[in-house]
From TrEMBL:
Superkingdom, taxonomy of origin: Bacteria
Protein name as annotated: Substrate-binding domain-containing protein
Pfam families, sorted: LacI (PF00356), Peripla_BP_3 (PF13377)
Keyword Zinc-finger part of the UniProt annotation: no
Organism from which the protein derives: Georgenia alba
Amino acid sequence: MASRPTLEVVAREAGVSKATVSKVINGRDDVGPATRERVQAVIAALGYMPTTGRRTPAAPTVTVLFDAVVNLYSAQVLSGVVTAGIEQAVDVVVTHLPAGPGPGALSPAWFRSVAARGHLGVIVVTTEMSAQQVRSCASAGLGLVAIDPVSIDPSSTDRMVSVSGTNWSGGLQATEHLLGLGHRRIGFAGGPVASRPAEQRLHGHLAALGSRGVPRDDALVLREGFAYEDGVRMAERLLSLPEPPSAVVAGCDASALGVMAAARARGLRLPQDLSIVGFDDTYAAEWTAPQLTTVRQPMVEMGRVALRTVLRLAHGDRPDTHHFELATSLVVRASTGPPAVPAQPA
């Protein structure tokens, strides 16, 4: 039986180094067209198959994993990933976690299966990953980039790159806007306690209050989730207080819509009776009535940065930083205005 051709044999027949053959097999773009064609011709003639267990797809491919695909935030992040994929001639495969823990979700076997399909790396979006899962991804030889990670284990920072907006600054901007309008009793309807972005937004909110000498009132700070239904529940609690807020900062646009719905159900006028600020600037922010004042996250650019970064990792390049923060900005629309009863000077 003829022996199986090796990487060394392919390199010798093609007149190149083994490193060059490896670059061609892994879809690297730093190989000249003529050299690439020669190496590919030798691979075909010899019937060479990589011994790593990977097969090379027709085009370089990246897996994008969402905690939930069906929401406006995910749609805009995915738009950025896909746009960058088109620019880089990279295919994007989208998947998501099951509703429950799910067998095999982010398990070592799952990462090995992604690598075996020839994918270059994984982008995870708003998904919690343990240090063990990060190690499993690295062991499979996959680059890993996390967009708005729920949390970051300090022991994992050298094995993954994260991309997010400036959440603390965004929380600060939202609350400073309301303070500037004259509000002093401001509710916070935030994301879950375990969420790192939600925590950063809350800290920005509290910093803005502190800078104006407004004391923290724990009754006004709620942290339940980023869904529309979470916004409804938190608004109902805030608006049932003996002294309800005159304004609310929501953790995201979806929960801000829930706050708006709960306020309307009580017959409140927006923004005359209640001002509301969201976070993200999703498409829905301009579809509401009144249009939603919100903190704009560069979600499309976050997706683009993540795709470009995972390709760099796959090519063995070191990232410029292990945490990219893209600037947020406040977009003022019609859902905010001065309070009906001006607050007394602090």
